[in-house]
Amino acid sequence: MKIGLYFGTYNPIHVGHLIIANHMAEFADLDQIWMVVTPHNPLKKKATLLDDQQRLQMVFLATEDYPKIKPSDIEFKLPQPSYTVITLAHLQEKYPNHEFSLIMGEDNLKTLHKWRNYEVILENHNIYVYPRISDEPENIELKSHPKIHVIDAPIVEISSTFIRNSIKEGKNIQPLLPSKVWEYIDHNNFYKK
């Protein structure tokens, strides 16, 4: 089974994340998308970062109607800070019959050369890249790598930061969130302070 791993803090998960995950599930040659909730770094406690389980619950609520998209808490069980290369090795060991690929925005591809053991990732895993609007210069060398697949996905310019700030300001941003996620945030008064 070919699994696309889509990492994020998902603080909160929004419709942009779902548009990209669903596009990858339907139009890339992947069988499932696992939305990997990244735990927070204990050394960088952010007041705006919800607890790991609360963010996982939001991903669960957002994806339960999408059979090809699954929430994953795999990094909760691994040593911190999380390094993608270690997560991939752990998953490959745990699920030897699965083929794992990464899903990332074009902005992340531009800094991939700074990731720990990025050469090992590129050697062993495909990377599916979705477009982002960015001022950063392109990494042409990496973009032409045989393991890099640029997918013609919709450009979605919604950010979790914008959503958190808007909730804090009392704005109605319901259309930017899956309805069950909006209800969960509203019920628990998240991001209001």
Automatic annotation (TrEMBL):
SUPFAM superfamilies: Nucleotidylyl transferase
Entry keyword annotation includes NAD: yes
Pfam families, sorted: CTP_transf_like (PF01467)
UniProt KW Nucleotide-binding keyword: yes
Source organism, top-level taxon: Bacteria
Pathway(s) of this molecule: Cofactor biosynthesis; NAD(+) biosynthesis; deamido-NAD(+) from nicotinate D-ribonucleotide: step 1/1
GO BP field: NAD+ biosynthetic process
Top enzyme class: transferase
GO molecular function, one term: nicotinate-nucleotide adenylyltransferase activity
Catalysed reaction equations from the record: nicotinate beta-D-ribonucleotide + ATP + H(+) = deamido-NAD(+) + diphosphate
Entry EC no(s): 2.7.7.18
Keyword annotations: ATP-binding, NAD, Nucleotide-binding, Nucleotidyltransferase, Pyridine nucleotide biosynthesis, Transferase
Residues annotated as domain Cytidyltransferase-like: 5-165
Summary of the function given for this chain in its UniProt record: Catalyzes the reversible adenylation of nicotinate mononucleotide (NaMN) to nicotinic acid adenine dinucleotide (NaAD).
Family: Belongs to the NadD family.
Name this protein carries in UniProt: Probable nicotinate-nucleotide adenylyltransferase
Native source organism of the sequence: Flavobacterium defluvii
